[in-house]
């Protein structure tokens, strides 16, 4: 799905760009590279909202990530902190991912047949071909 060098670079970028969000130990990014832009956008929006509210004199508890993973073909973003606006951002990102290929980010849909995945037609065909050779 992706190589370790790409993953390591993405994880390093996220930890450096959003040190407050990733200040606690978490399980890494257990999603494919097609969803990385969704996670990146979500984290940027979350931190911007928290910082903007602070400038307005309102305290929004800092979001810290517990886990980011794929489950039943969907993005799961588990966290602590935030407010109703951040809850909405997370719901929107999870919904966005349910229509994007986890491998490449192109439009996708959820396929079952073993592990439930959200993939584009091309990556679903590749998955089916791999299953046939096993």
Defining traits:
alpha+beta; two-stranded antiparallel sheet
Beta strands, count:
5
| Sequence of secondary-structure elements | HEHEEHEEH
Mean pLDDT: 94
Give the N-to-C terminal Cα separation.
17 Å
Helix content: 40-55%
Major sheet summary line: 3 strands, mixed
Number of domains: 1
What is the overall number of helices? Answer: 4
Numbering strands along the chain, what is their spatial order in the largest sheet?
A: 1-2-3
Taken as a percent bin, the fraction of beta residues is: 15-25%
SSE class: alpha+beta
Radius of gyration: 16 Å
Spans of at least 5 consecutive residues whose pLDDT stays below 50 are: none
Taken from the alpha-carbon principal axes, the silhouette is elongated
Task: Write structural notes for this entry.
- The chain is an alpha+beta fold.
- The chain has one domain (4-133).
- The chain is 46% helix and 17% strand.
- It has helices at 4-17, 36-55, 84-97, 121-133, and strands spanning 29-30, 64-71, 74-80, 109-111, 117-119.
- The strands form two sheets. Strands 1-2-3 form a three-stranded mixed β-sheet. A two-stranded antiparallel sheet has the order 4-5.
- α2 runs antiparallel to α3.
- The model has no long low-confidence stretch (mean pLDDT 94).
Secondary-structure blueprint of this entry?
Layout: H1 4-17, E1 29-30, H2 36-55, E2 64-71, E3 74-80, H3 84-97, E4 109-111, E5 117-119, H4 121-133
Parallel strand pairs: 1-2
Antiparallel strand pairs: 2-3, 4-5
Helix pairs in contact: 2-3
């Amino acid at each position: 799905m992706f190589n370790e060098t790409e993953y390591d670079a993405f994880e390093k970028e996220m930890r450096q760009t959003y040190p407050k969000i990733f200040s606690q130990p978490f399980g890494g990014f257990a999603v494919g590279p097609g969803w990385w832009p969704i996670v990146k956008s979500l984290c940027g929006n979350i931190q911007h909202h928290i910082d903007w509210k602070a400038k307005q004199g309102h305290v929004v508890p800092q979001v810290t990530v517990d886990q980011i993973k794929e489950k039943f073909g969907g993005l799961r973003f588990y966290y602590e902190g935030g407010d109703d606006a951040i809850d909405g951002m997370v719901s929107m990102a999870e919904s966005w991912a349910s229509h994007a290929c986890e491998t490449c980010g192109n439009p996708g849909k959820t396929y079952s047949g073993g592990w439930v995945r959200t993939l584009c037609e091309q990556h679903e065909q590749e998955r089916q071909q791999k299953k046939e050779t096993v």
